[in-house]
Amino acid sequence: MPDILAENLSEKEVMGSDGANLGTLYNITMDLKTGSLRYLLLDPGEKSGELEFDRDEQGNYRIPVNRVQAVKDTIVVTR
């Protein structure tokens, strides 16, 4: 997989593997000890309905990085 700069991911649309638009990428968290990525923080915006992911204190969904299937024009995550 080619390297992708974090600045290119900012505000990228996130879709489920079922084609549903889930929201936009707000931020990415990482483990400071290992440097490994942990979660995508997803801003659901005006989207209605609940997703199966946990939320942070600001209401953003925390999607584990291991659920990411593809990063191109959009980020695709397994639902």
Any key phrases for this structure?
79 residues, mainly beta, SH3 type barrels, 7 strands, 0% helix
Give the helix/strand class: mainly beta
Please provide the ordered H/E string of secondary-structure elements.
EEEEEEE
Separation of the first and last Cα atoms? 22 Å
List the uncertain runs.
none
Number of domains: 1
CATH architecture: Roll
With strands numbered from the N-terminus, the spatial order across the biggest sheet is 4-5-3-2-1-7-6
Helix content: under 10%
Number of extended strands: 7
| Global Rg | 12 Å
Fraction in beta strands: 35-45%
- Please, how many helices? 0
Largest sheet: 7 strands, mixed
Specify the CATH homologous superfamily.
PRC-barrel domain
Mean pLDDT: 87
Instruction: Return the CATH topology.
Output: SH3 type barrels
Overall 3D geometry?
globular
CATH domain class = Mainly Beta
